[in-house]
Amino acid sequence: MSILAVFNQKGGVGKTTTSFNLSAAMRRDNVHPLLLDLDPQCHLTMLAGVQTQLGTSLYGFYKEGRQLTDLIRQLPNGFNLIPSHIELCKMDMLLGREPRIATKLRNAIRSEMLETPDMPIVFDCCPMLGVLSINALVAAERVLVPVAADYLSYQGAVQLSHTLTGLEHALKRKFKRRYLITRFDKDRKTSQEIVDKLRDTFGDDVCDTVISESAPLAEALLLGKDVFQYDAAKAAADEYTKLFEELVGCGFLPIGD
Q1: What CATH number did the domain enclosing 145 receive?
Q2: CB 111 within 8 Å of CB 61
Q3: Transmembrane stretches, by residue range (predicted)?
């Protein structure tokens, strides 16, 4: 079973888009993931069309002591979602000094036996290293880092690599990492230059699959659909299918293990 954190400290790199569409690719393979929206911006929750109150979101878990299993929404598209709420933005202020707060999510997943062979867990993390992202990284076995094909995103990926290495020392364990190139434009010279720099820097940790920037991909999100639900996004759907197959094939996503 896989617990995957989709994380980058830089915004605008396709983190939620990746979480949403990679999970949709899992669903097409008859795998029904559990998604946790750990971003107070609630983008994944909004994409899923879910309306939440404080107590029925992850805020209820962190501040009201509710169990994760009580918060799971089973959605018509085959996803299982624990939604976010804007009030999660206060977690660093409210909980940052609590002892053992970093392990709260990991301990709950284990005690509630949410680790099952047929339900991967996907964390859509917020783009900052605070209580919520630390909780996700402590609980996760693997980190997928979306990196847009531009210079600032490349620099952000290098900084994030240092952050993850520091956390590895603190946690005394290694993260399995993959860097996913997103927002790639084959007609833009700098896009290929950034791809080359990423591969030179991170080697085999960079996914072979590249997610292209496209209007249909953006349109699908605007409609609250994944790329497999939107006929015009077939090219993007093919890329996310290829990404899923690559991650399973190399053992990064041990589906069914």
Answers
A1: 3.40.50.300
A2: no
A3: none
As for how many domains the chain has, the answer is 1
* Segment 129-178, tens digit of pLDDT: 899 999 999 999 899 999 999 999 999 899 999 999 998 998 888 989 99
In a domain, 257, yes or no: no
In-domain check, residue 254 = no
Whether 67 is in a domain gets the answer yes
Contact status, residue 149 vs residue 156, Cβ threshold 8 Å: no
Contacts of 194 (CB under 8 A, 6+ apart): 149, 150, 151, 153, 154, 181
Q: 19 is in which domain, residue-wise?
A: 3-249
The dihedral of CA 234, 186, 214, 16: what is its sign?
positive
What pLDDT is stored for residue 257 in this prediction? Answer: 56
Distance between CA atoms of 132 and 88, rounded to whole angstroms? 8
